[in-house]
Specification:
Number of strands: 15
CATH superfamily of the largest domain: D-amino Acid Aminotransferase, subunit A, domain 2
Helix content: 25-40%
CATH class of the largest domain: Alpha Beta
Distance between the termini: 32 Å
Largest sheet: 9 strands, mixed
CATH topology of the largest domain: D-amino Acid Aminotransferase, Chain A, domain 2
Number of domains: 2
Order of helices and strands: EEHEEHHEEHEHEEEEHEEEEH
Structural class: alpha+beta
Number of helices: 7
Shape: globular
Length: about 280
Amino acid sequence: MTLPPNRYCLDDRWLAPGEAVFAPTSSLVTAGEGWFETLRVQDGRPMTLKAHLDRLTRSVAAGLGPESALSASIAAQRCVETMMPVFDEFPCGRLRLLLALDAAGDRWQALGEWGPHIPSPSSLETGVTAVTASLPHPGLGPLGKSTSYHWSIVARREALAQGAGEALLVRDGCLLEGATSALVWCRGGRWSSSDSPAVLPSVTLATLRETGVAIDAGELRSDDLTPGAAAPIEGLVLVSALRLAVAVCSADGTVLPTERSLRVAADWRAKLLAHHRSGSP
């Protein structure tokens, strides 16, 4: 199936194909300075839009201060409002927001990228494979949504080159998250995720907890996924804005228990979609 090309909106107007966006002297081009969020648009409405914009504002505030963050937030909302009329174009879409200062450094620009999102049936039905990235997790915390995202891109490409669907990121011997997802594991019948300050808090994980899903804070060591581990896990699930929740069927070639993970991931996807369809922002 041939997908339609992505379209782009800058601030409050749609761009023509091939139209230049940011000036060569802007901070995005010269220094890679900017911030972004990626959202799933379901049934014509972005999922957890407010929470994603709030996280974007906090991330800018951590880097440039609250006054700049407020201006960035206004720019992002203006761009989304312009794009709203097309969000019913696809049953499921992908919205990516990119914020950067203009060439003078005194005005925020917001670029919105819009296109379809088609979930992979195989990942939902059988899960995905994962590999541990060779690069360590950078520990950026609230700055994790800056456009200095090379560590995640490199890890993701490394995983794809090995035929895997996700890269797992390690810092100080602990598995913190996936390259594009939060990492949730089951041990002793309870689900947990890292609460390390090195990790940018996941909006989708927070939304799951709002629906009543019990997910504790915990620590997962990288050797917990190896055969014969002293405290083996009973399931592993990736949680993200686009895929919502998918099971991990193997990590670094080790087959993981998947029956529970597949069942739980399907239940979590249903809960997230029901939460969205209830009208929650």
